[in-house]
Amino acid sequence: MKAGLVGFAGSGKSTVFEWLSGEKPDPAKVQQGQTAMIDVPDDRLRAITAHYKPKKPEPVFAKLALLDTPGLLTDERKDNPRRLAILREAGALVVVLDGFSRDDLAEQLRRFREECQLADLEIVLNRISRVETQLKKRARPAKEIEADEAELALLRRLEQALEQGQPASVVGLNPEEEKTIRSFQLLTLKPEIVLINRGEHNLGEAVPTELCSLSRIVLQAPVKLELELRTLPPDEREVFMQELGLQVLQREAVLRGIFYGAGRQVFFTVGEDECRSWAIPVGATVVEAAACIHTDLAEKFVRANVISYADFLACNFSEKEAKTRGLMRTEGKTYIVQDGDIVHILASS
User: Fold this and answer.
1) What pLDDT, in 10s, does the model give residues 133-166?
2) Per the confidence metrics, is the pTM higher than 0.90?
3) How high does pLDDT run on average in the chain?
4) 39-44 long-range contacts, Cβ below 8 Å, gap at least 24?
């Protein structure tokens, strides 16, 4: 899963990248984007690992790929479609808003969405032109012509929505239509997570009501301050945090917010060798979960033993106790994995 960081120049987006990834932004990669792989921390897995004491003593967390992209321009905007194009490979968008020097957060988000709509409209119009050209060539199989006509009708619906300042998501695509335009990687179809980059002077400010009405997922953190605090020895950091009234650092919460906001969740595998979390889409079947571990487990899947995290915790992380109390379930291929499930896959040899 790749999440793309995006924001207008000056929003502190690359600082966010460094804060979340621990990697310095590389000036040589600014135009094509820079990617880092980041652990998605999970206190549940930490607790499981502490109990199991496996050979690999540290928990193995699921990963999130984070893509930093060039800042969008507010004045000379002709280059913005190219800059946004880098995001098309991402599965979700993390929109960084300047909350340290500006208070027009809702307007920043509206302007970003407008840029995405314009970029998507350009792609749709270009495709319409090509399909219309194809339809003029009538000496083709009827099925090809019907497919082009159906695609053109779909593209016209998308064009209408985008020209009215709405995202492509309002069109309500069915699975077949989504498959038809999947290669376009429209930005306005991707999950969106908003991150307010706060300053030291407005740490405790609430998220504006207007912004909450615009976006389902809004996170916030004093990014630059936390980056600076991370360089301090633990005892000094604690003193500074107390003086600033900071109870906890927000980095881990923001990472989880991005991960879950992108439509992902985790399941756990536990054992003497290691305890690990695995990333899967929400709604994934247990066979799809098995494929994350190894393709052989999916191909030769027989059944899975499953315990919910809440039940596992109630049994003091004991599979034997969970089985005795009837809390370990046997599930077949159609089982939809739930976040935090402890899963043991049984496959044929």
Assistant:
1) 999 887 889 899 999 999 999 999 999 999 999 9
2) yes
3) 95
4) 39/63, 39/64, 40/64, 40/255, 40/256, 40/259, 40/266, 40/277, 40/279, 41/252, 41/255, 41/256, 42/256, 42/266, 42/277, 44/268, 44/309, 44/340
What dotted CATH number matches 283-347? Answer: 3.10.20.30
Following CA atoms 176, 282, 38, 105 in sequence, which dihedral angle do they give, to the nearest 10 degrees?
Answer: 80
Rounded to an integer, what distance in angstroms lies between the CA atom of residue 43 and that of residue 109?
Answer: 32
Other CB atoms closer than 10 Å to residue 47's CB: what's the count? Answer: 16
Angle between the N-to-C axes of helices 142-163 and 105-135, in degrees from 0 to 180, rounded to the nearest 10: 150
Task: Please state, in angstroms and rounded to a whole number, the distance separating the CA atoms of residues 183 and 201.
Answer: 44
Contact call for residues 337 and 280 (beta carbons, < 8 A): yes
Q: Give percent of the chain with pLDDT exceeding 70.
A: 100
The pairing of strands 264-269 and 192-198 is unpaired
Residue 185 in tokens = 């990687």
Instruction: Provide the β-strand partners of residue 278.
Output: 267
Domain boundaries, the chain: 283-347
List CB contacts of 45: < 8 A, sequence separation 6 or more.
59, 61, 266, 268, 275, 276, 277
Q: How many CB atoms lie within 10 A of CB 78?
A: 7
Q: Which residues, given as ranges, of the chain have pLDDT below 70?
A: none
